[in-house]
Amino acid sequence: MTELRDAALTAKAWPFEEARRLLKRFEKTPPEKGYALFETGYGPSGLPHLGTFGEVARTTMVRRAFEAMSDIPTKLIAFSDDMDGLRKVPANVPNGEMLSEDLNLPLTKVRDPFGEHESFAHNNNARLRAFLDGFGFEYEFASSTEYYTGGKFDEMLVRCLERYDAIMKIMLPTLGADRQATYSPFLPVSPKTGHVLQVPTLERNVERGTIVYEEPDGERVEVAVTGGNVKLQWKPDWAMRWAALGVDYEMAGKDLIDSVTQSSKICKALGMPPPEGFNYELFNDEKGEKISKSKGNGLSMEEWLAYAPAESLSYFMFQKPKTAKRLYFDVIPKAVDEYHQQLRAYPDQEVAKQIANPVWHVHEGNPPTSDMPVSYSMLLNLASAAGVEDTETMWGFIRKYAPDATAQTHPALAEAARGAVRYYNEQVAPFKVRRAPDEKERAALLDLRNRLANAPSDLDGEALQSIVYEVGMAHEFDPLRAWFTAIYETLLGQSQGPRFGGFVELYGVPETVAMIDETLGEQGRM
Q: Which of 129, 314, 451, 481 is the most exposed place for a label (fewest CB within 10 A)?
């Protein structure tokens, strides 16, 4: 057994803990289908979003951890629930009136509001695939419509009909009285209107494999449950899919715990084991409120990617998935810098620590080398101090510190510089307020100004940091952190930042002295 496999079998990183649970599933016998099947789901009534990315990214992390400890082949299916009926018109797409005319049709029959594809679902499915391909995910796409109409679910749909009573026994206690009276796991697709109907099942014929229901106009209709003539309700549908495909692992958000519970019971009633998996926590906004697309609070994936690379978002997704995290703009710089800190640490780590390092999971076991000589937070502080509005100005500062760096030789640095300038102009500059220093802070800033002005010109960041520390201690800031807070709030208009000595080295001693002079005003200078 290789060193990697030995380390993987005891690794504490959550993807390995999940992978070991999955491995236990195959202790007695390997999967009959010849591979371990991972699945993620997507509802194509809306565009791919942060949750879509997070679910595929995290599932892929578990998949790669499993592969590190097992020779069992793996497969990931990205499943689109595109046979669902359109129940409401999305607010973020054009031609809403046209869509309102197509309500209750399967999403693959709803006209495309963008006028680009065969249907709304085909458009969103294409976006999903381009979205996943753009991030380099390895997966197989699956369409609910194709699986229902193509017969891949027929055998299990007949079994659902055979075990109708068992499914109802599981579902009815979870429903209110009104819903209980009309509930059926089968949703017929009307041969008259094409609508996915939510109507009671009046009769069942297991031998013929049919159900009888009543159309809205009162006509009783008998249809086969196979061949795409019916669609299952959400929880029975999820269970049927697990059973039909032999899904071994699927994770879901905390809001779907009840769905996982009921679907798992139905899967067992169909004679198959439900998949392994866990429920991850949802994201909150800056105020701790649940992020909602309808509210527009929190941070979208598009907004994150406007300021930072996808790898930093994957890094954020890796961190404590079972703990609720606040997702707002201020987490981006921290995530980028921590990601690169881990990249720099990786080459010198032993295997056991490498596979515990988030970048191993972000990059599927093959992380690149960091080319960030300057932190993202430092770039932001430069932008804030100098009012940088374009990347060329930013590169002027960067070349002081890393004269040989270019956008071609340091692409991550180039992307960070672009993102930091944009982040500053859009998220910092409009809200930046530098507070006036109090009497004690003024005296300390003046002392710092004079020490910097009289310091040798060749001091590096550590030596400059020592000067900053000495000033803080000389003026008796307790705790010393209060001194650095004062520096950031009075000079940069923010409450925190990177090591100030490194900032001075990069920004320039004369420029820093001038910034302190501006803050103190003419009467404060000596």
A: 481
Q: How confident is the model at residue 526 (pLDDT cuts 50, 70, 90)?
A: very low
What phi and psi, each to the nearest 5 degrees, are found at residue 285? -85, -170
525 has pLDDT over 60: no
Classify residue 275 as left (phi > 0), alpha (psi -120 to 50) or beta. beta
Chain segment 446-479, per-residue pLDDT in tens:
999 999 999 998 899 999 999 999 999 999 999 9
Type of residue numbered 397: F
Q: Look up the CATH number of the domain holding residue 505.
A: 1.10.10.350
321 with 340, same domain?
yes
Burial of residue 270, with CB atoms counted within 10 A of its CB: 0-12 exposed, 13-18 middle, 19 or more buried: buried
Q: Are residues 155 and 237 in the same domain?
A: yes
| Torsion sign over Cα 257, 258, 261, 266 | negative
Tally the domains of the chain. Answer: 4
Q: pLDDT tens digits, residue range 118-162? A: 999 999 999 899 989 989 999 999 999 999 999 999 999 999 999
Q: Residue 371 domain-assigned?
A: no
pTM for the full predicted model: 0.88
Q: What is the DSSP letter of 35?
A: S
Same domain, 88 and 137: yes
**φ, ψ dihedrals at 51, nearest 5°:** -65, -40
Domain match, 274 and 397 both: no
80: its two tokens: 């689109």
End-to-end CA distance of the chain: 70
pLDDT for 292: 56
Query: Helix crossing, 120-134 with 50-69: angle to 10°?
Result: 50
Instruction: Give the chain's mean pLDDT.
Output: 91
**Residue 226: inside a domain:** no
In a domain, 197, yes or no: no
HEC states along 71-106? CCCEEEEEEECCCCECCCCCCCCCCHHHHHHCCCCE
Cα atoms in the Cβ-side hemisphere of radius 13 Å centred on 526: 11
Residue 167 host element (H or E):
helix 164-171
Helices 391-401 and 411-423, packing angle to 10 deg: 130
Q: Are 243 and 329 within one domain? A: no
For residue 312, is pLDDT > 80? yes
**β-pair partners for 249:** 38, 276
166 and 308 inside one domain: no
Query: What is the extent of the structural domain holding 257?
Result: 3-175+231-280
Joined together, the tokens standing for residue 254 give: 């905390």
Is residue 499 classed as helix, strand or coil in its secondary structure? coil
Q: 255 lies in a domain?
A: yes
Report the distance separating Cα 128 and Cα 134, nearest Å.
10
Number of residues that make up the chain: 526
Antiparallel, parallel or unpaired: β 252-253 and 279-280 = parallel
